[in-house]
């Protein structure tokens, strides 16, 4: 694996050459990255193989690819391959975690204000109690306040979304894990925007993510990762049809998008070949360059940039005038061929009071792309 920093001036163009030429200027990697042609071929090739030889035979033929995928994912999350379950999405993975983890009824789950809204809904649906975690002025968990909470009103689990979906915000997960480990409190991490973007091997007890964002894998594939020390305590029923399966193999969905898993295996191999350090470094550069390029655009304000050079590639914009964010997003796409997305307050109801325009380029973003975006933003207000 080439994990040394690459010549970043050429890094993005090499990444782009492996992909179909987009019809739009793509600033929406946080929704779904653009898979390479090889990844698309892997998905289609497996689907065709099922049609030719039969789904059960194709599944057996692909066993080594899936084994390698579990090993590669385990490396990214800092767990063993036995701790990896494959699901349909990050949402499904989190719901699975809620089902199998030995939480007491009405468990106290500590969250920061910027926590992902659907996670909060799933916790409420499961009957658990939300415990507010104090955050600093940028929205990151206040570590001193967390340490105090662990001493005085110990929660059953701490849940952190490592990289926020709606704006520039990265949680200090590794530092939080160290504090919680000392207090024997597990930490769960929503890694949806983190995998393929920043370092996800934080020592957390459980993590969940999809394939389709910064790894640029297919839709319809997710992963749940659980540290080895917890595997024997999971509430996983046995299955007569799978007598030799491990707990996380039983947790994995079996009526699944197998072609998508084969595609993720290819996408992750490409990421490892590029070098995770190089990708992360480039994405940090892209984020810093994006926020700098948009900082002085009339009619818009960059939201919560904080220490921008260390916070990844997601940028959020607030309109300073009367423009509706949804209208601006539509005009950017229809009139200027630029793909962005609207983040509504339900994404993070404890942190958001209004819609934001999210910009999330990948490693192929250029200065010319940012100039084009800045020009278009001026035109839509």
Q: How widely separated are the two ends?
A: 46 Å
Q: Judging from the principal axes of the Cα atoms, what is the shape?
A: globular
How helix-rich are the residues, as a percent range? 40-55%
Could you tell me the strand content as a percent range? 5-15%
Walk across the major sheet and give the strand order: 2-8-7-6-5-3-4
The total beta strand count reads 13
What's the gyration radius in Å? 21 Å
Mean pLDDT: 94
Structural class: alpha/beta
Order of helices and strands: HEHHHEHEHEHEHEEEHHHEEHEEEH
Low-confidence stretches: 1-6
What characterizes the major β-sheet? 7 strands, mixed
Per DSSP, the total helix count is: 13
How is this structure best summarized?
This protein has 381 residues and is of the alpha/beta class. 41% of the residues lie in helices and 13% in strands.
Task: Throw out a few tags for this protein.
single chain, 381 residues, alpha/beta, seven-stranded mixed beta sheet, four-stranded antiparallel beta sheet
Provide a descriptive summary of the structure in words.
The structure is a single chain. By secondary structure, the protein is an alpha/beta fold. Helices cover 41% and strands 13% of the residues. It has 13 helices and 13 strands. Strands 2-8-7-6-5-3-4 form a 7-stranded mixed beta sheet, with helices on both faces. The chain has a 4-stranded antiparallel beta sheet with strand order 9-10-13-12. Helix 2 crosses helix 3 (55-61), helix 5 runs parallel beside helix 6 (117-125) and helix 11 runs parallel beside helix 13. The longest helix has 19 residues, at 276-294. The radius of gyration is 21 Å and the shape is globular. The chain starts with 7 loop residues before the first helix and ends with a helix.
């Amino acid at each position: 694996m080439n994990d040394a920093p690459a010549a970043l001036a050429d890094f993005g163009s090499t990444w782009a050459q492996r992909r179909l030429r987009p019809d739009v200027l793509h600033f929406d990697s946080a929704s779904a990255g653009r898979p390479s042609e090889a990844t698309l071929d892997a998905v289609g090739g497996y689907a065709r193989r099922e049609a030719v030889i039969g789904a059960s035979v194709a599944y057996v033929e692909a066993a080594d690819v899936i084994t390698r995928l579990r090993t590669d994912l385990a490396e990214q999350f800092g767990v063993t391959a036995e701790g990896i379950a494959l699901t349909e999405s990050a949402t499904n993975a989190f719901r699975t975690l809620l089902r199998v983890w030995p939480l007491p009824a009405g468990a106290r789950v500590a969250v920061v204000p910027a926590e992902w809204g659907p996670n909060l809904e799933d916790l409420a649906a499961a009957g658990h109690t939300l415990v507010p975690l104090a955050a600093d002025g940028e929205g990151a968990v206040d570590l001193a306040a967390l340490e105090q909470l662990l001493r005085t009103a110990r929660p059953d689990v701490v849940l952190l979304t490592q990289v926020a979906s709606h704006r520039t915000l990265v949680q200090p997960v590794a530092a939080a894990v160290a504090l919680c480990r000392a207090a024997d409190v597990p930490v769960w991490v929503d890694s949806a925007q983190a995998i393929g973007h920043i370092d996800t091997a934080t020592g957390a007890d459980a993590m969940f993510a999809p394939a389709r964002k910064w790894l640029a894998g297919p839709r319809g594939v997710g992963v749940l990762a659980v540290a080895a020390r917890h595997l024997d305590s999971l509430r996983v029923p046995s299955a007569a049809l799978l007598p030799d399966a491990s707990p996380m193999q039983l947790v994995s969905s079996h009526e699944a998008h197998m072609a998508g898993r084969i595609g993720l295996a290819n996408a992750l191999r490409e990421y490892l070949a590029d070098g995770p350090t190089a990708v992360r470094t480039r994405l940090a550069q892209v984020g810093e360059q994006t926020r700098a390029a948009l900082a002085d655009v009339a009619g818009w304000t960059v939201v919560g940039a904080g220490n921008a050079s260390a916070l990844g590639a997601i940028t959020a914009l607030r309109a300073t005038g009367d423009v509706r964010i949804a209208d601006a997003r539509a005009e950017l796409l229809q009139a200027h061929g630029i793909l962005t997305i609207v983040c509504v307050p339900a994404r993070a109801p404890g942190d958001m009071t209004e819609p934001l325009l999210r910009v999330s380029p990948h490693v192929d973003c250029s200065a010319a792309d940012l100039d084009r975006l800045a020009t278009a933003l001026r035109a839509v207000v």
